[in-house]
Amino acid sequence: MDRNSGPIEGVEHPDHRVEFHLSPGDVEAVRFGISPGHELAHAVRVLRRPAAHPLQWGWLRAVRDRLPREDFALLTTVIGDDGYLPDFLTTAPRWDLTPEVELDELRTAPLDPMRVDFRKMVVRSSGTRQQALREMQDHPERARGMIADAWAAVWEAVLSPVWPQLERLLRADIAVRTRTIASTGIAGMAGDLHRQVTWGSGAVRVSLRRHSEQVDCRGGGLVLVPSVMSAWGCMVLTEPPAQPTLFYPARGVTAGWARDAADITAALSALLGPARAGMLLRAGTARTTSQVARDAGLAISTASHHLAVLRGAGLIASERDGTRMLHLRTPLGEAMVGAVH
What we know:
Layout: E1 17-21, E2 30-32, H1 36-48, H2 57-63, H3 69-79, H4 99-107, H5 111-123, H6 127-138, H7 140-159, H8 163-190, E3 197-200, E4 203-207, E5 213-216, E6 222-227, E7 235-237, E8 245-249, H9 261-272, H10 274-281, E9 287-288, H11 289-296, H12 300-312, E10 316-321, E11 324-329, H13 331-339
């Protein structure tokens, strides 16, 4: 390939990129969400090609023996090993999206857009997979029910047991990014998302392998979605009616991210002591001093002392909200919690 020539759609080139254009200073146009369906789709890909995903090996060892083979095979046919993911598998990411809601929306996904997605997958496949996808395209209602049942079975086997740990990483990442926007603006936050992402001329720019596009997000906004399972790089969603979306690797993902919550608490307790470790672990959302004390089973005065030590170490920040004092993990606190995952 001539690397000095311009990028051709569908052909790998170092200059392929998608640009999400925002209005100057339009902080409100950027919001964050989570996507259980995106995590499951990439979990399927990790299970198919584990050698390419060393950060998931700890999780893989825990779940590979309980994988429902027939349901997994069906999802593999739909999802594939790389590239395009059918849009109907996931709903619009949002802050409060749960796996149960995502599954419910999959069970009632509109059939006409599903036919379009199946058609795209047929073009991108061959052999027995292509034949199976053609059958799904011809009978989308039956396919939708089978795929939803497989989604539920595979989720229960491989992600449900670790969803608390995974969700904690996602929400911790969002907390850090949100505070970065408040302190340095969208440019500072976007420049720190991933090596594929840069900011310039009012646009979030994402380097991709085979696709280039200019996306006008002014008036509609951009959704940023951290991911644990797709820790290898970024993906984008640009086709209407979906809102422009950028999936990026969450920070703090190590090979031990799926450790049991008791192991995580023990590791932090050895460093900080049980009371402070518990406070730090629960500080992913802002809470008052009385809430911290109640959750820890301590007197308010004792909880205040521990909070002061954590604050002095730069692990939590405390801000007044009227008559209340709210306590939340700092980026350093997020990094410490992530380091023991």
